[in-house]
């Protein structure tokens, strides 16, 4: 690494990412390109007190014509050519329009037929394009998604959400492929739809309903929204952002109860230690009482905890 390739500012950013446990990898040209795009997202040029959003697809390894099937998005690709990159970036909002960057100079403007700027969208786009995505969301959050998982910068520090494959493997101790699929969707929902938006919640997956659970119903029976159905996720996120208590899903991933109060048994209160705040303690003790269930607790500041049988299966650290 030399200063002419990586400026001192980019070197500082590289060190900051290393402290957060992230190594961009790749050759020096690709590394400099990624750090440059990330630096641009972190330090946007303000115009008339408006801070622009931004999105970059860095070093895609899959041809653009193969993106459509995996993303279900129509797209138009226009080569940048000799047009200055500083100007080309102005057209990339990180929602519907993106700038595609390659160290070999094959830069292009990418415009999708609908917005794709949520964290879940970024994870899908990174997987389908084989790229690292850098985004400054209109709300000011800067994210980088790729094979490493997702890195979020809230203006002060980085938070790393590792790839979910390891989590899903740890959660798949249940029986049957159906539960494995439902739990994978539930975890993705918790991390990329709730945690990414700062929505605290308790999600309870109950594959068995052979006894009366230890919770108190406080709200009417909700619509049977399904965690495996993409069109049901937006109303579910909106509802969870407005209620306290837990959301209970059956074995198929269908929402059965909302806003319930988890009531621990005397044994759970005696034998299961508290963990974190009230939300995590309630989830941990409930998982002890309902040993067939899996409880996913989402903190308001983003980290997600998975509990089963009163024990921690996994947790993303702040």
Quickly give the CATH architecture of the largest domain: 3-Layer(aba) Sandwich
Task: Please give the radius of gyration in angstroms.
Answer: 21 Å
Low-confidence stretches: 174-178
Q: Average pLDDT, to the nearest integer?
A: 88
CATH domain topology of the largest domain: YojJ-like (1
* Category by helix and strand content: alpha+beta
Cross-sheet strand order for the largest sheet: 2-4-3-1-5-6-7-8
Roughly what percent helix? 25-40%
**Major pleated sheet:** 8 strands, mixed
Task: Supply the number of helical segments.
Answer: 10
Number of strands: 15
From the N-terminal CA to the C-terminal CA, the straight-line distance is 30 Å
The tally of structural domains comes to 2
SSE sequence, one letter per element: HHEHEHEEHEEEEHHEEHEEHHEEE
Q: Please state roughly what percent of the residues sit in beta strands, choosing from under 5%, 5-15%, 15-25%, 25-35%, 35-45% or over 45%.
A: 15-25%
Shape: elongated
CATH C-level class of the largest domain is: Alpha Beta
Can you give me a brief rundown of this structure?
This protein is of the alpha+beta class and 318 residues long.
Summarize the structure in words.
With 318 residues, the protein is of the alpha+beta class. It has two domains: 8-161, YojJ-like (1 (3-Layer(aba) Sandwich); 165-315, 3-Layer(aba) Sandwich (YojJ-like (1), CATH 3.40.1700. Helix content is 31%, strand content 24%. The protein contains ten helices and 15 strands. It has helices at 8-19, 28-42, 67-71, 85-88, 119-129, 165-171, 177-194, 233-240, 266-271, 278-289; strands spanning 54-58, 75-79, 97-101, 108-112, 132-136, 142-146, 149-153, 158-161, 201-206, 215-216, 246-250, 255-262, 294-298, 304-308, 311-315. It has an eight-stranded mixed sheet. Strand 7 and strand 8 (158-161) form a beta hairpin. The protein is elongated. The two termini are 30 Å apart.
């Amino acid at each position: 690494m030399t200063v002419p390739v990586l400026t001192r500012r980019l070197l500082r950013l590289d060190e900051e990412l290393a402290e957060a446990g992230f190594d961009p990898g790749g050759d020096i040209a690709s590394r400099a390109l990624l750090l440059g795009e990330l630096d641009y997202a972190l330090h946007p040029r303000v115009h008339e007190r408006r801070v622009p959003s931004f999105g970059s697809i860095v070093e895609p390894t899959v041809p653009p014509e193969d993106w459509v099937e995996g993303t279900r998005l129509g797209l138009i690709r226009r080569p940048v050519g000799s047009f200055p990159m500083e100007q080309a970036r102005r057209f990339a909002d990180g929602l519907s329009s993106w700038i595609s960057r390659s160290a070999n100079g094959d830069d292009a403007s990418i415009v999708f037929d609908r917005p794709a700027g949520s964290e879940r969208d970024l994870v899908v786009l990174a997987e389908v394009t084989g790229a690292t995505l850098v985004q400054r969301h209109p709300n000011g959050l800067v994210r980088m998604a790729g094979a490493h998982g997702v890195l979020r910068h809230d203006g002060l520090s980085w938070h790393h959400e590792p790839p979910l494959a390891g989590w899903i493997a740890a959660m798949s101790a249940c029986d049957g492929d159906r539960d494995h699929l439902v739990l994978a969707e539930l975890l993705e929902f918790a991390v990329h739809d709730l945690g990414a938006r700062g929505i605290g919640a308790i999600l309870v997956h109950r594959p068995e309903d052979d006894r009366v659970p230890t919770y108190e119903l406080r709200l009417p029976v909700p619509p049977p929204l399904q965690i495996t159905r993409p069109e049901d996720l937006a109303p579910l996120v909106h509802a969870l952002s407005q209620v306290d208590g837990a959301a209970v899903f059956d074995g198929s991933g269908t929402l059965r109860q909302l806003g319930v109060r988890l009531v621990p048994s005397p044994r759970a209160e005696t034998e299961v230690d508290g963990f974190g705040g009230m939300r995590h303690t309630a989830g941990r003790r409930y998982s002890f009482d309902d040993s067939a269930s899996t409880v996913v607790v989402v903190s308001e500041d983003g980290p997600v905890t998975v509990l089963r049988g009163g024990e921690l299966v996994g947790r993303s650290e702040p």
